Amino acid sequence: MKLITPRAHGYLDYLTVVVFLAAPSLLGFDGLPARLAWTLAAVHLAMTLATNFPLGLFRRLPFSVHGWIERIVGPTLLVVAFLPGFYSVGPAFLFFAAMGLVIVAVGWLTDYADAPEPGLVQNP
Asked: Are 55 and 13 in contact (CB under 8 A)?
């Protein structure tokens, strides 16, 4: 049994959007790392709104696909953290490495099988 339900995952997704939006200002990095954080906030918001789970708005993207996207994004953020424009900026390195680890952990702990059947809309 996985610890994170689809509903709890939804709350974590919206929190992730806020974290990506706020990190550049709060941690003091700019340039490419800041633009990537803001882009990831927008993409993550769009994906969350489109996911067929309790906190999705449009509910077109199967929750299992949402999970596979996050299984790719988490490790990718770990790689990004070690790129020269990120690794040399301490706060950006720490932020992207930490977010990569968090997204990987949430992916392992989420019950993606507890999603509705494709095409069915789940009640809020």
From this structure: yes
Q: Is the pTM of this model over 0.85?
A: yes
**Computed from CA positions of residues 76, 77, 82, 84, in that sequence, does the dihedral angle turn out positive or negative?**
positive
In whole angstroms, give the CA distance from residue 33 to residue 25: 11
Q: Rounded to an integer, what distance in angstroms lies between the CA atom of residue 13 and that of residue 16?
A: 5
Q: With contact defined as beta carbons under 8 Å apart, do 116 and 122 qualify? A: yes
Contact (CB, 8 A) for 26 and 34: no
* 117, pLDDT greater than 70: no
DSSP secondary structure letter of residue 62: E
One-letter amino acid at 67 equals G
